[in-house]
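May I ask for a protein sequence together with how it folds?
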Amino acid sequence: MPLGAARLVFEIGTAGASVRDLRERLDLDSGYLSRLLRTLEERGLVDVSPDPEDGRRRRVRLTRRGSSTLGRLEERSDALAQDLLDPLTERQRARLTGALAAADLLVRAATVHLREVDPRAPEAVVAVDRYFAELDRRFPGGFDAEGARAADATAMAPGVGAFVVATGDGRPVACGGVQTIAPGVAEIKRMWVDDEWRGAGLGSRLLRRLESLAADRGHGVVRLDTNGTLAEAIAMYDRAGYRRIDRYNDNPYAEAWFEKDLARR
């Protein structure tokens, strides 16, 4: 089986996947993905049918023969990995495990897609819900999200502000938005990165994208605020060239305020 087809069988997996998710996850051209799926269908390995939850989408599932093929691919992969590991000492295996974990995270982060979406889009809602849930866990007094989403939908709507969702492995893994707070001054809001994706520079990449969107909309200055418990976010803003400023808003959760001159990026 060609590598591309084998990878597709692996990505479909035992749970199945939508054609759209496969296309985004693997960054494949629609025509190429269709040809691969047609080949797998002809071999009796997959079944492609309308998604019962959304008739406009197609869902792919492995047939019994496809599941058997996936099992054989997994067994051969495991055997090859075991052959590579056998000559190594325990210490060498530990070093290899750490190196592979770091490489996996960095490669996954490099394949993440950053897209502008409406803040009311499903993927944006999922990302922001997870962001609010994290704030509620981490803030000493919790976080009350009531009213925040409606404000975001107005201030960050297409044509007014901007909202970006980062998608990895077919799901939202980071988000952030830009809104105007004064002539020539933008504010970055809702910056969030999934725990599993932190440490690979995704937050910095997202921040640069948001700064670029602010500059494209004619803003010369960008501001943001954060809570003191979010130490990793504060460290990122310091590295990105933000300077501390006095309070500029009435956000009850904010404990630190930052500003950056976009002309000096």
Observations:
- The beta strands are 17-18, 46-51, 54-62, 113-116, 162-168, 171-182, 185-193, 221-226, 243-245, 256-261.
- DSSP finds nine helices and ten strands in the chain.
- The longest strand covers residues 171-182.
- The mean pLDDT is 92.
